[in-house]
Specification:
- The complex is a heterodimer.
- By secondary structure, chain A is an alpha/beta fold.
- Chain A folds into 2 domains: about 240 residues, P-loop containing nucleotide triphosphate hydrolases (Rossmann fold, 3-Layer(aba) Sandwich); about 250 residues, Rossmann fold, CATH 3.40.50.
- Chain A contains 17 helices and 22 strands.
- In chain A, the strands form 5 sheets. Chain A has a 6-stranded mixed beta sheet, with helices on both faces. Chain A has a 6-stranded mixed beta sheet with strand order 16-19-20-13-21-22, with helices on both faces.
- In chain A, helix 14 runs parallel beside helix 15.
- Chain B is mainly α.
- Chain B has a two-stranded antiparallel sheet.
- In chain B, helix 10 crosses helix 11.
- The longest helix of chain B has 30 residues.
- The chains are: A alpha/beta, B mainly alpha.
- Chains A and B meet through helix 2 of A and helix 7 and helix 8 of B.
- Bound molecules: adenosine-5'-triphosphate and magnesium ion.
- The site of magnesium ion (MG) has 6 residues of chain A, from helix 1.
Chain lengths: ~525, ~325
Amino acid sequence: MTTTQPETRRLVVEMRDITKKFPGVIANEDVTLEVRRGEIHALLGENGAGKSTLMSVLCGLYQPDGGSLHLALHQEELCETVLRSPRHAIQAGIGMVYQHFKLIPTFSVTENILLGAEDTPTVLDLKQSGARIAEIAERFALPVDPEARVWQLSVGEQQRVEILKQLYRGAALLILDEPTAVLTPQESDALGETMHSLAASGVSIVFISHKLDEVLAYADRVTVLRGGKTAATVDVADVTKADLARLMVGRDVLFSADKPDAELGPDALVLHGVTAMGDRSVTAVNNVSLTVRGGEILGIAGVAGNGQKELVEVMTGLRTPTAGSVTVRGADLTGKSAIDFIQGGVAHVPADRLGQGLAGNLPLTDNVILKSFRSEPISHRSFLNKKAIREMSIRLIEAFNVLPGDPDAKASGLSGGNQQKLILAREIDATDRLAVGDEPAVLVAVYPTRGLDVGAIEIVRDALLNQRAIGAAVVMVSEDLDELRTLSDRIAVLHGGEVMGVVDPASTSKDDLGLLMAGERLS
Amino acid sequence: MDLDLVTSILAIATFAGASLVLATIGEIFTERVGILNLGVEGMMIMGAVTGFATAYRTNNVWLGVVVAGIVGGLMALVHAFATITLRADQIVSGLAITLLGTGLASFLGQVIGPDGGPLVGLTGPKFTKWPIPGLSSLPLVGEGFFNQDPIVYSLFVVVPVSWYFLYKTRPGLYLRAVGESASTSDAVGVSVFGRRYGYTVLGGVMAGVAGSHLSLSYTPGWTENLTGGRGWIVIALVIFATWNPARAVVGALLFGGVNAIQFRLQAEGTNLPASILNMSPYILTVLVLILITRTDKLRQTIGAPAGLGIPYHREERE
Ligand SMILES: Nc1ncnc2c1ncn2[C@@H]1O[C@H](COP(=O)(O)OP(=O)(O)OP(=O)(O)O)[C@@H](O)[C@H]1O
Ligand SMILES: [Mg+2]
């Protein structure tokens, strides 16, 4: 991968013994990280291991409680630096691409890139700045339209804007927090190319990822964090996937899930000729008919933005179809509201964790009962039962290994992966309750393992397969083709809001799935 | 309708709308950095009473305007401190500013007249009209646009400059960014704190000056409840204008126009009860709000600053 010996390249960043505490948690404890010039350095660790926190310290957003930072991005010699704000970090040559993009949706690409850039003129000349951006975009092969509004762009394009923004400001160190978590496989490959060409031109890159294959493919070196401390820094050439997993989790991890044959139950969720509008008043779901039976996992594949979001909303009662019908366990729920769907037996793990999944300012306990507060024993004649709530919270927190497991902490303080575990815990618990007799519950899970570490993915996959084993009808939307192929019994491929085909994962190759996703029907 | 009637309605509309335009643009600046200040009514009425008292005592209307601006700015500073530094709820703080302002203004009206007496009923100095030779005798618009007082004329500068500043300059871009998302702005190196303070205070200054236009020109003198809820109309106008200073003018003229027509009708002795006529601008406000929220779906995506009302602290997760 690397041609010059990495050791001979000089250090550009040295974080020594960094400690960062939050109320009740030590997110980073004496963490050391070294980055060389032109190196691609991966940062690995379980959910909540402190990766994002460490990077937030490096980009001036968080002030460390201990330790020191030495930089040589704009000069030859390492020099101790205190970064008092993101502004300082930018001036020092550090560019961060956050897990949640820092873009203003209503602004154009150009306006977003000009924001905070040193040399933005007092009177804006968007044409001229746009031309400069287009030129940099060309040089680094990052195609985007400078005049487009950010809300019109796909996630992959938004990420390109973020990277462009940092390059426009002359960043010499690029930090990417879980850059591939939201990308399609093709987009991830393109990002890998971009990282290599940037590194070749002397830019150093730190990227966080949970996908070990990617780390092995893209990185030169890896630093692994465990429980807020540095576990190791290793050369990629010297390790295997299993080694990395062991360093992260502290035990061996199984990468494949055993799946017994499906025992199909009755039809649980039936969509018949469903058509629905998207937010921008265009048809997002077009004449979709699907049947999901108890005891099976129906995978939904497709490039993001091809109607998955709207289809899921129709399945969960959040969007009313303009044509067609939705039947849950034999009851026609077309046009009914979300509460009818919940009571009718549909559980939902949404894609947008903080927007639709959790109430960030409320404690874990309140978030855990969001779906069950109407029923015994959580409430009794409109009074909440504190004791039952606590018991339920603690039970679910333990079952899904949500960390830190303080039931009274705010949900927004959890790391991204742990938020996801909390939602899953609640929804899977709901499907357990919703199943009545032989009538299976329906679980609609959207990107259930997005942003999770390998250990947590194992937990989630087991939980989904377990639901299937006890007879629930599971719908799983994912962009990870490997995941879809290992877990699903059938895969429906969406393109332009239409089902291109429902295929058997065992007899369909990844390439064929790719073709269907691109809108070509198999002959 | 005969031409004279239209001319005179336009003249009154402009005259009545001037304070609305000023205060609305001020509130647009404030809301565009993400701070909702419901204290406009309080700041306007305090501007009105202190502006008039100052002008009365010094016999200088300009000094009155300056003091009104300072008073408005100081009140906004209180709001800024409460909501930006202490991260108090913006609605509660804004309402408190209005309650404080109206109460204090009515108290001051009793005691800051000559010899610690009331201001009510006094005639003091006021702005006179400066007709612009030639232009003021133009048909239709001459009366309305070119035979006005200097505060109205200042809008010829304030409106286009505000618009240009907001949409065409770097500081304007940064100001809008802060209102859209404080955390994004901070992360990209656009500091939030100073901007939020600055533009909140600017909004207060403009509301204060707007108030003084009422007591020094539109209805010269001081009476209880002089602003008559104009501060609330301003809040609605900001939405009507979809946070765009240029559109604020249209809205303000419309409201000024309704006022003017209502005066006319009253003067001509209609059968309609006066209270209904007095209500008409407020009914219009409600109607307009219903209309724009119903018809313009895009309003939500292109209009309201997405970060409006959301406090910001760097090390706290959203
Ligand atoms: N602003 C904050 N306030 C309170 N606690 C926080 C804050 N930021 C992080 N933490 C805590 O610090 C720990 C490390 O979190 P961090 O986000 O760095 O994890 P991570 O390694 O990025 O995890 P993930 O892979 O899930 O994104 C977690 O326990 C988290 O709950
Ligand atoms: Mg993270």
